[in-house]
Design goal:
Blueprint lengths: L2 H11 L4 E5 L3 E2 L39 H4 L2 H9 L2 E4 L6 E6 L2 H10 L4 E4 L4 E6 L5 E5 L2 E4 L5 E3 L12 E2 L2 H4 L30 H16 L5 H16 L7 H13 L4 H15 L2
Parallel strand pairs: 6-10
Antiparallel strand pairs: 1-2, 1-3, 3-9, 4-6, 4-8, 5-6, 7-8
Length: 281
């Protein structure tokens, strides 16, 4: 039994679906029956799932935890020629933040929760418990490898990494979120200050209730957080933007709620500025 197959069986026994890699850290190509994806192979499909071909010829989709498949005759040639082992993080319920250089590592240490880390040739893999969509180049030197992707297993002594694995945080999920489209001017009626200088909102509890509702709206967002934050800021400013009753403490509460959901201080400032520009306040 080859060392790579032994490693693959060890991973499979722990619920991590492995696959063999050729030289150059790439999966094995399609077998003759699947050449040019004539079989409609899994990489052409939109949802994660295993390859139905008996040979390991569909990249991440060939990864499996079935020892009978890993030990089968169609896989024997691949293990004999393999230069390494990879695994499907999403299939194991994991996400790998692939940090490709020192600058990316420094960014992660400043912005991401500590978790299990694995040294790589040029950087580090940060492993989190939880799966998400994969994406390349979410930041300079940063890739996300989870569903429908593969990551290298880096061998005894490094593959398991060091540190305690943390749950996948929203700040990592947010890295793949698309930026909202630029805000378009909208017609909004903004209350004006009264001639006496008294806030027209009747009582302070009106403002307090509005800020609390805005915090709740941001906190409960499950998707499109960037857009939700911007629209919430817009709603608050449309009601309280010109009467003078908003304080720095109120704005700080909104920014804190947004940053708790994974928004950066820069995104908060940009969203607030864009909302003010849209309303002309």
């Amino acid at each position: 039994m080859s060392e790579h197959l032994r490693t693959a069986l060890h991973l499979a026994a722990h619920g991590v679906p492995p696959l063999p890699l050729r030289a150059g850290k790439v999966p094995f190509g399609n077998c003759p029956a699947c050449a040019k994806n004539a079989c409609g192979g899994r990489p052409n499909m939109k949802t994660p799932g295993p390859c139905t071909c008996p040979a390991p010829c569909h990249g991440w989709a060939a990864a499996t935890t079935d020892p009978n498949v890993l030990n089968s005759t169609p896989w024997a040639r691949a293990w004999g020629e393999a230069a390494g082992v990879a695994y499907h993080p999403g299939g194991a319920g994991l996400t790998v933040v692939d940090l490709d250089n020192a600058e990316a590592i420094a960014w992660a240490r400043a912005n991401l929760p500590a978790t299990r880390t694995v040294p790589t040739t040029r950087g580090e893999h940060w492993l989190y418990q939880g799966a998400m969509q994969s994406a390349n180049a979410v930041r300079p030197g940063v890739d996300i490898k989870s569903t429908m992707a593969y990551a290298r297993w880096l061998g005894p002594g490094t593959g398991s990494g060091t540190g305690t694995m943390a749950d996948l945080p929203y700040v990592v999920r947010a890295l793949t979120a698309k930026e909202p489209a630029p805000a378009r001017p909208v017609a909004v009626t903004v209350p004006a200050s009264s001639a006496s200088g008294v806030c027209p909102h009747r009582t302070p509890t009106y403002l307090e209730r509005g800020i609390a509702m805005a915090e709740q709206r941001i906190t409960e967002a499950r998707e499109a957080v960037h857009t939700t934050v911007y629209r919430t800021f817009l709603a608050v400013l449309s009601t309280h933007g010109r009467c003078g009753c908003l304080t720095d403490a109120h704005i700080a509460r909104l920014f804190t709620a947004a940053q708790t959901k994974g928004e950066s201080p820069r995104h908060c400032t940009d969203a607030w500025t864009n909302a003010r520009t849209t309303l002309g306040v």
